[in-house]
Amino acid sequence: MKTTTLYDGRHRWIAFGRDPDKPEKIIDTNQYLIVDGKRALLMDPGGIEIFSAMLASVLRFTDIDAITDLFASHQDPDIISSLGLWDQALPHARLHAPWLWEGFLRHFGLNHIEYVAIPDEGSTLSLETAQIQFIPAHYLHASGNFHVYDPAARILMSGDVGAALEPEGAPMFVEDFEEHIPKMKMFHQRWMPSNKAKQDWIRRVRALDIDMLAPQHGRIFRGDDVKRFLDWFEALEVGTAVG
Ligand code: FE
After folding, report:
1. Cα–ligand 1 centroid distance for 125 (angstroms)
2. Dist. CA 37 → ligand 1 center (Å)
3. pLDDT per residue over 14-50, tens digit each?
4. What is the rounded CA–CA span in Å between residue 225 and residue 176?
5. What's the CATH architecture for 2-235?
6. What is the model's pTM?
């Protein structure tokens, strides 16, 4: 699995993705890890299919005992169907996930990990020095949904917002925004159901200081491309399906 360091300050952000051994016909996903001393937060750790590759990759950056916290932006299988396996690997960790999905997510098997329900208005998590914010992103696309903002790294992990459908092995960063638009358009129009929720999110996110917008599929936006994405998404009508 390919790994990319996004931030290397007092703590570290690492992106995982583009797994060449991933079975065909499952959507490619990006997983993210914050390593902060003896604490680590693993975000949207992925599906059962990639669990063993993810575990091996994550252990290149941190000890297993340091993985104290997991995060699931929402309930989808590509986000967190690996939960029952992490539950066996990390008996003392906590899962931060939307309160709305607790009764559903427990179907993946949760016997050891503690479920920390994020309330609708969001919440915060203190690691060793990093102060992490869970930002509401409801209906983008799941009805209970959060993103992760790190004010020190100025990174917003934006779940399915900013996602793109890419051919195998695509680069990790957007290089040409205009050229990237066709890969994102249908994804947002079809999977995002609410223009009102989208505008609420745009307003909330414009108030944050963001150097990188890091989605769960496709490529990461840097610098001016973050604003280009927000402008493009604001103008896009979502909740449309043909037929
Ligand atoms: Fe999803």
Report:
1. 23
2. 30
3. 999 988 888 888 899 999 999 999 999 999 999 999 9
4. 9
5. 4-Layer Sandwich (3.60)
6. 0.97
